[in-house]
Model the fold of this input.
Amino acid sequence: MMSATELQSKPKYFSIDQANAALPLVRRVVEDVVRQYHTVVELHQQQQSLAADNNPGQWDTLEINRQEATTRLNELIEELNDIGVELKDWEKGLIDFLSRKDGRDVYLCWKLGEERIMYWHDLHAGFSGRQIL
Done:
């Protein structure tokens, strides 16, 4: 019998139908990830510009907000991990679903804005290696 840790660490494989069925939830979480990522970046940039102004009170407020936004971003990423997908690009909302094709592991690839799963690539090929299903 497998332990809880072994069950959690076992990768989840998706068929094309399973990946497309998970897409409505994945899409909502990824939209939040992209939005939250931009918030973290913006707060960091504001902190950088304030550092030159030597305004510790405002910098501290921005730091608290940045930490909260980062925590929320990490929660969203954990939610994607729980679904069983891999976030590859926080800014573009690029997601990979582990799958099998011709007896080998591959990724079904989806990017925010795409209607459904239409591409796949080898594990080490990345976005530039995407091929039409």
In short: Residues 12-132 form one domain. The longest strand covers residues 94-101.
